[in-house]
Amino acid sequence: MNMTLLCNAGLALQAEGSILLVDLPNQEYPPFYTLPEETWRQILERQPPYDRVCGFYFTHEHPDHCSRARVEAYLRRWPRTPCFFPDEHEPEGEVTMGPFRMQYRRMEHVPIPSPPVLVATMIGAGEKWVYLPSDAALDCEAHRAFLAGRRATAGIWTSMYLSLEDTRRLMKEATVRNFIYHMPAERPDAAGLWRKVDRNLERYGSELEHVTVWEHYPATVEI
To answer: Distance (Å, rounded) from C-alpha 123 to C-alpha 38?
Structure first.
């Protein structure tokens, strides 16, 4: 399986000749990196390699993770394309798109006003698995309960998980390799996210040898 970070939180997973788009297309959301218009045009027109898209999968519907308008524009042209959005009435489940199997469980979003319905997801293809908590709250016991002792090939986390001893331990338990995404496009950033990441890597480097911070787009990793 190959994982490509196309923008801020938008991923393209490739396996067995198919592509699954995760939290993509999304909307422009400064200070985060926006999906280039040319890439969106290629996706919309199903130009290679996006002629092999087998479905869209969304962890939640915040604008930095989802653009309903763009999804609808795509489905008008390619109406048979599978598409998954979390449902508040389905706390957990499984869905298949092409060679990909998504096992999901609803979790709390990090604390914000009017939080959306969000799912953490194990995405599998062949013998490879990716754990994607998305913007789930730092509830380690909820993650451990969902994972139930499983260890994924790779995990994709937000930078918040670098900050606490228990979340750093969770990352090492849950996955073999870990990647940090959803970072501002430029350094320095007004919110200080890059400063916090650099500080955590410096302080806890011995605990984070298995962690890579994604900061360039597109970024592709084979797992």
So the answer is: 27
Whole-model pTM over 0.85 = yes
21-41 in b/e form (b: 16+ CB < 10 A) is: bbbbbbbeeeebbbbeeebbe
- Report strand pairing: 118-125 vs 128-132: antiparallel
- Please state, in angstroms and rounded to a whole number, the distance separating the CA atoms of residues 31 and 9: 12
- Token pair belonging to 107: 């979790």
SS3 119: strand
**Backbone angles phi and psi of 184, in degrees to 5:** -55, 150
For residues 123 and 147, is the Cβ–Cβ distance under 8 A? no
Give the list of residues 6+ apart from residue 33 with CB closer than 8 angstroms, or none.
7, 8, 184, 185, 217
pLDDT in tens, 81-136: 999 999 999 999 999 999 999 999 999 999 999 999 999 999 999 999 999 999 99
Q: Edge-to-edge, what's the strand order for the sheet holding 152-157?
A: 92-97, 100-107, 118-125, 128-132, 152-157, 175-180, 211-213
DSSP 208: -
